[in-house]
């Protein structure tokens, strides 16, 4: 940053890190440091859930503070209208979720281009394995392309890779376990004795919810989440509930007007989706795995089924994606959900064979 201010040359840093390596913590702390120096800086993320949560936590019920703090946390939408180098520094979290032109952002062309153009010094924090829709274009290659086009010097090396695991009780083994379960990348043997993480698979969805509800009573840091499989009945006035599982389990998706689902003390009973959970963490996370992810015991393979994605899902593009793309996005979605918990992850699978497979792995 100091070099940028000295010679007024644009610079871009790409910081890579897997789930739980502290990308968002680093982003918010960088914002604090830059603001303290009197710089025009902003934290930018496409996902509204972390922005709303941070704003609420920092401002509380102080309306004046809410207005001021809102300026520090922004969406990439609308950056096409910003003048070149309007910001001294733009810290772009969840960069893998950036998109090209989307409906409503009439002047937008490419959010990576617009972030770099609008900022003298641009910091991208990225995990390419957390792309979850066909519209997500955020990649190291795309950032490098636009940085070069906009004459922004790029820094990306071994020093800009976050390796330490701060979530999941600091267990890199747990992240590898999830990769092994979902058959992402090469299988790697792990020492289960080093996991030190509360992972459980439930046969009864009601017991699954009861255990999580009890944990949530202590500090409101436990939530339930699910994949894209379930229709949004409540939103479209089809039914009073959205998610129906065996043994009479029923629940609603998180309420459409609840922008602070992650911290709202009244929101535990609602199930979050990937958009309300990505970029956030909890003490305990409960993941409902629908029929878009199964296990074939004859072949020993994880099987994804894009036809099980809800027709109410208008954002992911998974249903109409090529099979290989759909498989990657479904696995990325569940990996992201399964790695939201600091202390533990509870799992309920609609597919019994998948539940047996996960049990055998843990």
What's the quick description here?
The protein is an alpha/beta fold. The protein has helices at residues 2-7, 23-36, 48-59, 63-70, 111-118, 140-149, 172-182, 205-219, 274-277, 323-338, 352-361, and strands at 11-17, 41-44, 73-74, 87-92, 119-126, 153-155, 161-162, 198-202, 222-226, 243-244, 250-253, 270-271, 282-289, 293-296, 301-304, 341-349. The radius of gyration is 21 Å and the shape is globular.
How would you characterize this protein structure?
The protein has 362 residues and is of the alpha/beta class. The protein has two domains: 2-162, Rossmann fold, CATH 3.40.50.300; 168-361, Rossmann fold, CATH 3.40.50. 31% of the residues lie in helices and 21% in strands. It has eleven helices and 16 strands. It has helices at 2-7, 23-36, 48-59, 63-70, 111-118, 140-149, 172-182, 205-219, 274-277, 323-338, 352-361; strands at residues 11-17, 41-44, 73-74, 87-92, 119-126, 153-155, 161-162, 198-202, 222-226, 243-244, 250-253, 270-271, 282-289, 293-296, 301-304, 341-349. Strands 1, 2, 3, 4, 5, 6 and 7 form a seven-stranded parallel beta sheet that branches. A four-stranded parallel beta sheet has the order 8-16-13-9, sandwiched between helices. A hairpin with a 5-residue loop joins strand 10 (243-244) and strand 11. The longest helix has 16 residues, at 323-338. The N and C termini lie far apart (45 Å). The model has no long low-confidence stretch (mean pLDDT 92).
């Amino acid at each position: 940053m100091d070099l940028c201010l000295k010679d007024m040359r644009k610079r871009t840093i790409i910081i890579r890190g897997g789930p739980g390596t502290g990308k968002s913590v680093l982003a918010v702390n960088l914002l604090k440091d830059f603001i303290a120096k009197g710089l025009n800086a902003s934290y930018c993320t496409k996902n509204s859930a972390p922005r709303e949560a941070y704003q609420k936590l920092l401002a509380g019920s102080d309306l004046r503070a809410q207005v001021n703090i809102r300026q520090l946390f922004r969406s990439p939408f609308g950056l096409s209208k910003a003048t070149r180098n309007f910001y001294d520094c733009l810290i772009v979290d969840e960069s893998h979720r950036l998109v090209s032109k989307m409906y409503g952002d009439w002047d937008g062309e490419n959010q990576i281009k617009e972030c770099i153009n609008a900022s003298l010094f641009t910091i991208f924090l990225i995990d390419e394995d957390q792309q979850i829709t066909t519209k997500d274009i955020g990649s190291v290659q795309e950032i490098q392309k636009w940085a070069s086009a906009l004459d922004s010097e790029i820094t990306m090396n071994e020093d800009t890779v976050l390796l330490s695991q701060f979530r999941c009780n600091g267990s890199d083994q747990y992240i590898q376990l999830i990769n092994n379960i979902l058959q992402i990348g090469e299988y790697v043997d792990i020492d289960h004795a080093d996991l030190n993480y509360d992972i459980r698979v439930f046969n009864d969805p009601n017991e699954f919810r009861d255990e999580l509800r009890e944990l949530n009573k202590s500090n409101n840091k436990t939530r339930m989440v699910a994949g894209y499989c379930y229709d949004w009945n409540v939103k479209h006035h089809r039914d009073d509930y959205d998610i129906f599982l065996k043994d009479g389990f029923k629940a609603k998706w998180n309420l459409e007007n609840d922008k602070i689902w992650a911290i709202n003390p009244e929101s535990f009973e609602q199930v979050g989706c990937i958009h309300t959970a990505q970029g956030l963490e909890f003490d305990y996370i409960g993941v409902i795995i629908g029929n878009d992810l199964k296990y074939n015991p004859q072949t020993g393979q994880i099987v994804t089924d894009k036809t099980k994605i809800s027709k109410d899902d208008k954002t992911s593009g998974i249903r109409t994606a090529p099979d290989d793309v759909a498989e990657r996005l479904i696995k990325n979605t569940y990996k992201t959900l399964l790695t939201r918990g600091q202390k533990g992850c509870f799992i309920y699978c609609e597919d019994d064979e998948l539940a047996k497979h996960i049990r055998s792995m843990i």
